[in-house]
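hey m, so remember when u said the tokens were messed up on ur end? i reran from scratch. heres the input so u can diff it against urs
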Amino acid sequence: MTSATDISNRIIEAVMAQKLAPGSRLGEQQLAMLFDCSRTIVREALTRLSTRGIVTVSARRGWYVIEPSEDEAREAFEARRVIELGLLHQLKSVDKAAVRQLKNHLQREKAALAGSDVGARSFLLGDFHVCLAECLGNSLLADTLRDFTARTTLIAMLYQSSHDAAQSCADHVRIVEALEAGDIARAEALMSEHIGTVQDALRLQAAHDPLAELRDALAPVRKSAAAPEAAVNVKGRAPRKAAAKKSVPPPSDDASTYLGALL
């Protein structure tokens, strides 16, 4: 019988493969039918993912995949930088078995890049960082990185990352080459550069201003230089100006998908 762990793992994989977009709804009944299990098990899986920061729930929308804010996007990349650079910084050496396993992963990455399966390509590029932590013998950090990698995948989808998949694979190759050569400091520097490059490819504002929209709306109205001065009536008072009609933008379409392609 399908367990809550099986369901949560499948959802994480679907996110990393970019098959579940930010804001995708996750209906309990539909998931129960899909995995042939009870809604109780589904709810347990979604609750676990909620504590891991991958899904959230509201009374109006139910369960859905998170839509990270710009601040949350920056924090996610900062967290990954701390974890991954710290993992490499404390290394003394890397054994041959770990290097061999990382090279096998790189071969799968290259094969996915040459193929047409975008989902497999996205998953493998993100899973490299999880694989690195596992190869270096830290399963706890591997689990943590899996969640952060899934979250940064959602961020890349939400903020329309322009990062090239081939560049990510090339970055991974250089990191493994440095590890194989025993140059841990270079591997750490390459990882820092890699994470920074991925983050820089996001369409994020330089600094988030929570009052920007309200500040623009309440800014003083500037008079046109060509506009004639208001006529003064016989009592010495300027006539009232007609209130300018404020255009209302059309409501944006909800681009979120329902469940996405889990299978």
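this time it looks ok to me. The longest strand covers residues 55-58. if urs says something different then somethings off w ur setup not the seq
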